[in-house]
Amino acid sequence: MTLFPRLFEPGRIGAMELRNRVVMAPLGTFSADNGHASQPIIDYYVERARGEVGLIITQNTAVSFSAPGARSFLALYDDSFIPTSKKMCDAVHQHGAKIGTQLGHHGIQQAEPGRRMGFDDREIPVVAPSAVTYIPTGVVAHELSLQEIKGIQGEFVEAARRARDAGFDTVEVHAANGRLANQFLSPFYNKRTDEYGGSLEKRARFACEIIQGIRQKLGKDYPVLIRLNAEDGFYHGTKIEHAVRFCQLFEEAGADGIDISVGASEFSPYLIPCYLHPDGVFVPLCAAIRKAVNIPVIAVGKIVDPFMAERILTEGKGDFIGLGRGLMADPYWAAKAREGRHKEIVRCIACLNCHGAYAKQRRGMACTVNPALMREREFILKSTSSPKKVMVIGGGIAGMEAARTLAQRGHQVALYEKSDRLGGQWNIVCQQPGKRDFASLTLRLIKGLQGAGVSINLSQEADRSLVEKVKPDVVVVAAGATPATLDIPGANGANVVQATDVILGKAKVGESAAVIGEGALGMEMAFSLAEQGKRVRLITPQRVGAGVEHFLRLSLRERLLDHNVPLHPFSNPLEITPEGVAFVTSYPTAEVDSYVNQTQTLQNEFIFVKADTVVLAIGGKAENRLAAELKPLVPELHIIGDCVAPRDALAAMEEGAEVGRGI
């Protein structure tokens, strides 16, 4: 008998029967082929179907040529997209899961850079309920006429027809996250005074008429879902009391189920909750909507384990459980829970690297704890036909992933770590605010090393003489990085400490502190010290949070502002004295946002701030001396992780996995 009877009880949404209550939430993969389902996307969804998900809802699918979002999004605005969609549906159905697609139109979000061009390079219009400005880029939208509104609603209906013809079991109208239907719901974007603006009922009319149109076209038995924001998460947006009424109107219009979300991509840090947000962060909002409607509600919001999922269902706070990043981290989340192997579930750590620049540059989407994401087909481990003696130097996450994978493939692997514990720099990361769960990655990797038979050698520094003694066929160097410093007067003063030493408790911080560092570490350190009651300033060479994933930056910035931390962006330190820091600030014409990366300097200003302690959080310096020394000594040498160049954990895990599969 399962530990989670409600979670694995069959469910129904309209006429659609599902094998359990686990729903894969719609998340963009950024991997479509000019709107078509690519093979990596199909493999991605098939793997989750194998993992016993009940219903898969695919990523946003463009209903209109005029708003594809980007070439890497799926599309159904033309019959030519039906064959590849059918291929995807058929593949998912073979493994017992149902599949639906989310139909959407970007509206004013089309103003984002990279989304203005259509699939044939024609510039496409930016439209919205009203002629409002898209704040991140300053583009003013074209206000939709009544005729244009009817045209877009018709495109939703025709896209739904194509979805049914392709084999999708349901469609979901995307009225959340700042998409066009959400823009009609939101008083921030909708300033209309006709039948599509003003009261809650009028603002809901656009989405209600889409539901009614799909119902009329496809009949009463074809399930129609709608996803909306329980809250927009920004000033003058939709609130929960509005969302409750919207859901009642959607039910009256013929919706068979409600899928909850929160936040718009341009403003809200809540759209993709990070490690700073509590588990189950949106469940109270889901529960409020569940009380107000008589159709199923899909609950979402950092639902991390099956125990939490079971409680949500038994307490009546939702009828189904929506998992997004949890299924990215572990496609077999449902199967493991059903079989009582819940302790084996690979936990999403909410680091948001999946949406960071590195992930999108690599292949659209990636996962720190699951290097196989979007590479499911190519990532099947194959036993080696020529086992080698491999020496892995460095017991951080890159070295552990490489050693584990190599040993699983049949190589003879010995791992050497100079400290008395495995984990490397990741152990420091795990001690930062909100990152307690990050340690689950370390524990899983250690268990994997032990299970694969890796020889683990702690408190043993691998140097040239040891390599000459061991005589390995292959050496993998994963020596990591050391904290970087500044080349300015006073940088080595007694009042200057490294952020990593503060985290580890090796360095004390006075009552006032100046933190220098533009990335996540600088923001996290300033926030942590402010929480302790310190008077803190954050000095950053570029904009605050440069290089930090968009939603994580918004979350950290919100906390810094809540704690009244003065921010000094575009500031370059000149000198550190026992009394504080001197720096020059260059004031640009406008605050640089997450989409625009250009500034025009107006003037420079010299500033001196007093601080008992100056904390350096400026990243690391690659520790690559050993690799250079060993290169002429060994037949095969690989260098991975931060000793190549300091980056994030996703890069370290990917390189460890790749070298493990490649040798």
Features:
single chain, 663 residues, alpha/beta, FAD/NAD(P)-binding domain, eight-stranded parallel β-barrel, five-stranded parallel β-sheet, 20% strand
Q: What does this protein structure show overall?
A:
Helices cover 31% and strands 20% of the residues. It has 3 domains: 333 residues, Aldolase class I (TIM Barrel, Alpha-Beta Barrel); 138 residues, 3-Layer(aba) Sandwich (Rossmann fold), CATH 3.40.50.720; 121 residues, FAD/NAD(P)-binding domain, CATH 3.50.50. The chain contains 21 helices and 30 strands. Helix 1 packs parallel to helix 2, helix 7 crosses helix 8 and helix 18 packs parallel to helix 19.
Number of strands: 30
The number of helices is: 21
- State the helical fraction: 25-40%
CATH superfamily of the largest domain: Aldolase class I
Can you summarize this structure?
With 663 residues, this protein is α/β, with parallel strands linked by helices. The protein is built from 21 helices and 30 strands. The chain has three domains: 11-343, Aldolase class I (TIM Barrel, Alpha-Beta Barrel), CATH 3.20.20; 389-483 and 620-662, NAD(P)-binding Rossmann-like Domain (Rossmann fold, 3-Layer(aba) Sandwich), CATH 3.40.50.720; 496-616, FAD/NAD(P)-binding domain (3-Layer(bba) Sandwich), CATH 3.50.50.
